[in-house]
Amino acid sequence: MSTKPNRVLNGKRIGVFGKGGCGKSTVAVLLAKALKDTGYDVCLLDADSTNVGISKALGAATDPTPLLDFYGGMVFSGGFVTCPVDDPTPLKGAHISVDELPKTFQETSPEGIHLFVAGKMGDKGPGAGCDGPIAKIARDFRPSYANETPVTLVDYKAGFEDSARGNIISLDWIIVVVDPTSAAIQMAIHMRDMVAQLKAGVSPATAHLEDPAMVDLVNQLYREARVKDVLFVLNRVRDDETERYVWDRLAEHQIEPIGTIHDDPLLSAAWLKGDPIADAVNLNEAGRIVEALEEVAAGMVTRTALEPEAS
Ligand SMILES: Nc1ncnc2c1ncn2[C@@H]1O[C@H](COP(=O)(O)OP(=O)(O)O)[C@@H](O)[C@H]1O
Ligand SMILES: [Mg+2]
User: Fold this and answer.
1) 170 by DSSP, 3-state: which?
2) 223 lies in some domain
3) 174-222 pLDDT tens trace
4) Which residues have a Cβ under 8 Å from the Cβ of 275 and sit 6 or more positions away?
5) Contact at 8 Å (CB) between 45 and 118?
């Protein structure tokens, strides 16, 4: 029997999105560490089909084998895992006890953060197809533990694609990482609008689906989407002036970030050398973001005005 306290983020899934290189993986690792520090059990699911390196940043001994291999490979190479856009049906066996999942697909960081990798395209050769099957795994994979109800962070690849492929339906919250660029600010506004539209019941794209049962299924999945809110974290902020500038631009669109991770040379050095991100680095800032997340989850505050803007 678990004696752990019933924490407000237990069992929740939080997806980390943002433009290329804005710091999604950095924020995901820092939040995973801060959540663990606070006493949560934590899973980190690497859902970026392209970039590697998160296991090293986490200080894990090895890279876990991608779950794509466990689920039988991509449909484009004769395997079983389909793209959620063509085939919205749930991934078979996605809800799985970790005791049934071979150890090669699981890794744990020194502090006990569980790490999984959805899949990588790097070794799939030219013309391998689209990475939608990896997004399906990210959407549906749900490991269960006998004595833990972990909070799960999903580290997505850059851009909108995976959220447009329906990954937002299986997330409780979306965190958009905003670095100090106008492209990142623009993406924050677009993500906020996308979630607002989802919550307002705007229908997803189904014109490509021939089977009416599949159209019904997609519409049902979106109707039942669990996403509650979209939240914003500033990253790689150098100084107060930059922070104020980004904050003001976002405020013009009724977006109020839940926290800031400052620029830290130790972070870029860790990523360069493949070293673990040290405990001291920005962990206080990540800890404050965890507190803000808990306040949001407890319903103490609503952070984002989920009103789509007229374009
Ligand atoms: N807060 C930060 N301070 C300093 N460098 C950072 C910070 N966040 C990210 N970086 C740098 O930016 C690069 C991209 O970050 P990463 O987290 O891998 O972005 P993403 O996952 O969005 O592609 C890293 O290799 C690192 O050098
Ligand atoms: Mg990344």
Assistant:
1) helix
2) yes
3) 999 999 999 999 999 999 999 888 888 888 888 899 999 888 888 888 8
4) 56, 269
5) yes
Q: What is the model's pTM?
A: 0.94
CATH number at residue 205: 3.40.50.300
Q: pLDDT of 30-72, one tens digit each?
A: 999 999 999 999 999 999 988 889 999 999 999 999 999 999 9
Q: Is 23 near ligand 1, meaning CB less than 6 Å away? A: yes
Work out which ligand 1 atom sits closest to the CA atom of 269. 27
Cα separation of the two ends of the chain = 53
Q: Which domain holds residue 22?
A: 13-297
Using one digit for the tens of pLDDT, what is the confidence trace for 125-160?
Answer: 777 778 899 999 999 999 999 999 999 999 999 987
Q: Please state the atom number of ligand 1 nearest to the C-alpha of residue 282.
A: 1
What gap in Å lies between CA 161 and CA 72, rounded to an integer? Answer: 23
CA distance 306 to 193: 7
Ligand 1 and 66: CB distance under 6 A: no
- Indicate whether residue 228 lines ligand 1 (CB < 6 A): no
**Structural domains of the chain, count:** 1
Mean pLDDT value of segment 261-289: 93
- For ligand 1, say whether the CB of 260 is within 6 Å of any of its atoms: no
- Among 267, 281, 284, 289, name the best residue to mutate to test ligand 1's pocket (greatest count of ligand atoms within 8 A of Cβ): 267
